[in-house]
């Protein structure tokens, strides 16, 4: 299994040892002393895995890890971190941030080899799986490599070749329509039409004529004969979006069409056959709607031969960097800009949000960031987390950022918002937002250096006394 491993360590001996061990195993090795140089190498060369010390002069190994995880084209590169004896806690944090594995000093030859080899094998398998899926066309638009998304791709691949009716459920903005389109694309009918009908958008009295067509003069306004969506979708796929909002009368007619494969236009007794595969989607709990009489139970059973659940974004936050990367490329291209880099703190912040509007909300946010930010997207560009997002996050027990501290009068930096007032309602002021970001960054840095204030102050570019002041002012406390 060939591959190139990038070793990042400021200690010459460690670099030499790792080079010997890895080259002895047939791997190529590149080594650099600093994280900054590692980023340069990553930009210029093909690297299959990174082994980095956590403590480095300048940018730390943790920040390097975060940068790698926040670039869409790098996010799948395995990153193994080396920690000193005293900083196993930091190594565990690194795992949470997406490190593949860690080892302690002094390095154990076999441990290193097993770990690097496993990491390379896992990432090659993931590459192959994703190449297969791309070949099959499933992923043309769907982004995400988390276990949750992989399960979804597997389900899509399984039902696509069949004629089975699929009911896609899931919260708004989770990608139900993308799933429906992927199923069609991967089905034997992909050369036939894909017809989408938004059942919630059609006025109740027009649903039947939209779906089944009408004869001239069938009702006032029916000035000409019209084909319905069932007819248009012949030999293809009919996607009934928001089926939960379809009026009961229309449901009866849809049920009949599904049972007999025949349809008739409004105002006509003549029936004819159509060859249509029906996919449906809803953000409602159809089972409950059926129980409570708002949806025909028999239709529900007919539609949900194969149920597929589209997962909420909070169930796979690990896909956020990859999604951000994909949307970033899309919107930068659309706006004729070069792809903008994203500060790792932005990814960390986004990963912690509740996203009640799911991927759609994230996508809209990225578009806004692309347009409003400068050369790099930083936490200053982020809007405050909305009240709804916070509620969702809390309801699902996702990790919460610490509460904002009481307003402080003194501040030592160039703060132009010293007299900002808290805006009632959901928005945090720029000041509160900046505090949150500062608090998170200082806390990360402190953890990284085991609360060595002098070291943290150096890394942060602050005087010790100023750092102490910030720690107090921002209400930062050492855990445990
Ligand atoms: N996994 C994904 N990868 C890339 N883009 C995605 C993904 N999931 C959703 N999107 C994007 O998010 C937006 C919303 O997706 P979609 O319209 O399919 O959601 P939906 O579940 O049908 O929402 P609603 O219930 O509100 O209709 C679209 O722009 C879509 O391209
Ligand atoms: Mg939709």
Q: Any idea what the CATH architecture of the largest domain is?
A: 3-Layer(aba) Sandwich
Mean of pLDDT? 85
Count of DSSP strands: 14
Task: Return the CATH class of the largest domain.
Answer: Alpha Beta
Give the helix/strand class. alpha/beta
Main beta sheet, described? 5 strands, parallel
- Round the Cα radius of gyration to an integer and report it: 28 Å
What ligands are attached or bound here? Answer: adenosine-5'-triphosphate, magnesium ion
The count of helical stretches stands at: 19
Count of structural domains: 3
Shape verdict: elongated
Question: Percent range for helical residues?
Answer: 40-55%
End-to-end gap: 43 Å
As laid out across the biggest beta sheet, the strand order is 2-1-3-4-5
Spans of at least 5 consecutive residues whose pLDDT stays below 50 are 401-425
| The CATH fourth-level homologous superfamily of the largest domain | P-loop containing nucleotide triphosphate hydrolases
Query: Could you please say which CATH topology of the largest domain applies here?
Result: Rossmann fold
How much of the residues is beta strand, in percent? 5-15%
List the topology elements.
Layout: E1 4-8, H1 12-24, E2 28-32, H2 35-44, E3 49-53, H3 61-70, E4 79-83, H4 88-96, E5 101-104, H5 109-136, H6 147-159, E6 166-169, H7 176-185, E7 194-198, H8 207-212, E8 213-214, E9 226-227, H9 229-232, E10 236-241, H10 248-260, E11 262-263, E12 272-273, E13 276-282, H11 286-291, H12 297-303, E14 306-309, H13 320-334, H14 344-351, H15 358-372, H16 387-395, H17 430-448, H18 453-460, H19 464-473
Parallel strand pairs: 1-2, 1-3, 3-4, 4-5, 6-13, 6-14, 7-10, 10-13
Antiparallel strand pairs: 8-9, 11-12
This protein binds adenosine-5'-triphosphate and magnesium ion (MG).
